[in-house]
Design brief:
single chain; alpha+beta; Beta-Lactamase; five-stranded antiparallel β-sheet
């Protein structure tokens, strides 16, 4: 069958979008219904050999399955009510089957034995032996189930001694086998011991806890963020552990992206609503410090006539910035970044082969790392953005990408302010020319009149 679907591609379609179920799908469902009816008839014939709870559970499960298959022949779209009802009937069927077989097997295992066997005094010993074998098989099956579970399962004493752990829990904490964990102290695995104390306190008070978040240390020293559920009975804690480290990382990444979008939005609003360059630059630098998590930042603007970089605005510095001399292209971090049109950085300024020329800017600031990115728009360098931190910076690619995005927004802000300033200057020139012409015309009219 698998080959007919994935290799030969000859398996008939069961559903066609816009047309609904195919005759093959409907016919298959009726065939399944026929098989289920035949099974129900067989169970009816042998009902005397089964416990009533088992018999009714199985027959009810078959009836629910038949209802589900009938519902699956009636829907047109996958979101139709008939499709939903079919799945609800399926869930009901599985639940009844679980109650009839799995739950009864654990709570009343002897009910699954034939009535004649339980009632026969001659076979009492054989029946007891058979039950013991079945119980042992159930225990082995239970252990296999625990070891194949996709979540960690464990048992500890109230004082933290590990009594049982399944393979997934051992794998989660980087142990080669579950047996290695037995007898160890689970408190050693908690990143914060207060979390363990808080968990025990809740269990003593309520006997049960769900969705308890904490961090556990693996055997090789890595931290894993987990979600725990546990119960307390007879001074034994039993529970399950789900590793949600990747989910937490994804949530944190989404949170950062949302914050970054908000920062870019704030910069856009500043660019649109304000023609004052220095006010816009201050807003940009505030967003840089907040979202790149650095200590200080400054902007140097390019003087296109003298080809020098001049300090324009800064934020995060301990002292008031003194008047700084212009910096020629190619000099220091900022000059090289503008000249070479690339990010120039140093994890440790003191050990860098590039000299930081504007020493008055960082004097007494205890800066360790610096990142300088050119501000380029329409192929023209408009200045540079300097970022400083008082501890070593080791950014990832996402951090660098957002830095470049902020640099582009800063360049747009500078370009917008320059255009606005040029437009205002042109307007003032036109007004002055109009005033001169009006004054000249009035003077000429006065002369003629005289």
């Amino acid at each position: 069958m698998l080959a007919s679907i994935f290799v030969w591609n000859i398996f008939p379609s069961a559903y066609i979008e816009g047309e609904g179920l195919t005759p093959f799908k409907v016919g298959s469902e009726y065939a399944i219904i026929a098989v289920l009816l035949a099974a129900m008839a067989l169970f009816w014939r042998g009902r005397t050999a089964l416990a009533l709870s088992v018999f009714y559970g199985i027959v009810g499960s078959l009836a629910a399955s038949i209802a589900a298959e009938l519902a699956f022949t009636l829907y047109f779209g996958v979101t139709d009510t008939a499709n939903l009802l079919g799945h609800l009937f399926k869930i009901t069927a599985f639940y009844l089957l679980y109650r009839a077989l799995v739950e009864v097997a654990f709570t009343r295992p002897y009910d699954l034995l034939l009535r004649q066997l339980k009632q026969s005094e001659q076979t009492e010993r054989a029946g007891r032996n058979f039950a013991e074998v079945e119980l042992h098989a159930c225990e082995e099956s239970y252990l296999r189930l625990m070891n194949n579970a996709l979540v960690g399962v464990y048992q500890t004493s109230l004082d933290g001694i590990m009594l049982f752990a399944n393979s997934e829990f051992a794998h989660l904490l980087s142990f080669s086998s579950a047996e290695e964990m037995i007898g160890g102290n689970v408190a050693e695995r908690y990143r914060d011991l207060q979390d363990r104390a808080r968990l025990v306190e809740i269990l003593k008070r309520e006997q049960y806890v769900r969705e308890f978040e904490t961090d556990l240390w693996t055997r090789n020293g890595q931290s894993r963020h987990v979600l725990m559920s546990a119960s307390l009975k007879d001074r034994t804690i039993s529970g399950m552990v789900l590793d949600i480290t990747e989910r937490k990382r994804a949530e944190e990444k989404i949170k950062i992206q949302v914050e970054q979008l908000a920062a870019l939005r704030a910069i856009d609003i500043a660019i649109i609503s304000s023609a004052e360059l220095y006010l816009t630059l201050k807003i940009v630098l505030e967003q840089v410090i907040q979202h790149l998590h650095v200590d200080a930042a400054s902007v140097l603007l390019l003087n296109p006539h003298q080809y020098t970089l001049e300090y324009a605005e800064g934020i995060g510095f301990r002292k008031e910035i003194p008047a700084l001399p212009p910096l020629r292209l190619g000099e220091g971090f900022a000059g090289r970044a503008a000249l070479e049109r690339r990010i120039v950085s140093a994890v440790n300024i003191a050990e860098s082969e590039i000299e930081f020329r504007q020493k008055q800017l960082i004097e007494g600031e205890d800066f360790v790392s610096v990142y300088t990115v050119p501000l380029i728009i329409k192929g023209q360098v408009r200045g540079v953005l300097d970022i400083f931190n008082r501890s070593e910076l080791h950014p990832d690619q996402a951090w660098l990408d957002f830095l470049e995005t902020l640099a582009k927004q800063t360049a747009i802000a500078i370009e917008n302010a320059t255009l606005s300033e040029g437009l205002q200057k042109s307007n003032m020139d036109l007004i002055r020319q109009a005033d001169r012409r009006r004054v000249g015309g009035n003077a000429q009219a006065y002369t003629i009149c005289v």
